[in-house]
What does this fold into?
Amino acid sequence: MRDDTKCLHAGYTPKNSEPRVMPIVQSTTYVFDSTDDVAAVFDDPTKALIYSRFANPTVMAVEEKIAALEGGVAAMCTSSGQAANLLAILNLCSAGDNVVASSQIYGGTINLFSFTLKKLGIECHYVNVDASEEEISNAIDSNTKAVFGETIANPAVSVLDIEKFAKVAHDNGIPLIVDNTFATPILCKPIEFGADIVTHSTTKYMDGHAVQGGGVIVDSGNFDWKASGKFPDFTEPDDSYHGITYVGTYGKPAYILKARMQLMRDFGCYPAAHSAFLLNLGLETLGLRMRQYCENATKVANFLKDREEIESISYPALEEDKYHELAKKYLKGSSGVISVVIKGGRDNAIKFMDSLKLASNEVHVADIRTCVLHPAGETHRQLTDEQLIAAGIEPGMVRVSVGLEDADDIIDDLKQALDAINKADSLNS
Ligand SMILES: *Cc1c(COP(=O)(O)O)cnc(C)c1O
It folds into this structure.
């Protein structure tokens, strides 16, 4: 199946006289004929459905669909993107270990890596998104257990050189994790370029309609945990599961099964069946929507780049963009997110945003409706100026998430808001 077909058909194939639409299985638990049957499933929760922290049929169907779209062997849905990145790291790292991450990543992930994981004894070493192989390699030490980056960074919209990061990770015997939220598997499949684990905030384009939060972790099945020698938790018996060894028992999807059996069991951040159902509705039109986001955002970017109020614009599909070559290599389109720096810094950025009428000012991105956000004053306000610069964020930066309204209506709105900056300026002078 090709992507648009997978969006509609992967994960759920009804048999004779079964519901055409994937049903919501709104049950936390399952019944068994005997205590022996229950005991057998406790020994190995992959044998049958036992309890919603391990699996639910509606959630499983969505997991299978996303794994198919990304080209992975298995996936695990979580209750949010934050939970996905948290579990993706905790599945590899214990206290004393560290992660090497691109500095241009989502502010919430920077918080998680720099503050909360640090309290658990897991550190993060940041490298520039444009770092050379040598610079990435120098950041890796004997306790580094993963390299992490975002395909298209939120909000800097830089493009990760996935092959370069994968090569350095693999040369050091560790996996590459790529957060593919902004690209979605429609525009990029990081596994094809060497990523071992892919994560998403499904709250964004995958859901698309701003109706429920969620996340997902996809396992490529490609990383050789045994050959690496750095991951005894994958190759030695798990005492909390009667001595199962994940690689020995499950083979390729060892990473996801370990995440499910240890971390989902213990942290419990699983999505509700109803949320999985809504996510599936979003996924059904993902291909169609992503192509339209790319078309609308390209029109909007071409309008914005010529306006004198704009100091700089980042949208990788633009020929003059710093990341255009990487975008051509890795992306089938640059998605709907454009980042602009408004001349006059913070004050003019705020004037511009407050003058918008159609685009909404909201803490969200990748919505079906156009929305804007001021990273320095909102999502990234906890960062120091130094961290802001490292994350690629200037005080006058506005993140424009282009929606699926008629592109000309979006442009009319942006135009009147840019004109409003000038009006305010001429009144002041
Ligand atoms: C929003 C976002 C997250 C966090 O996801 P939530 O669903 O809000 O928890 C992680 N990574 C990226 C790139 C995001 O944009």
Summary: The longest strand covers residues 144-150. DSSP finds 18 helices and twelve strands in the chain. The chain has a mean pLDDT of 95. The radius of gyration is 22 Å.
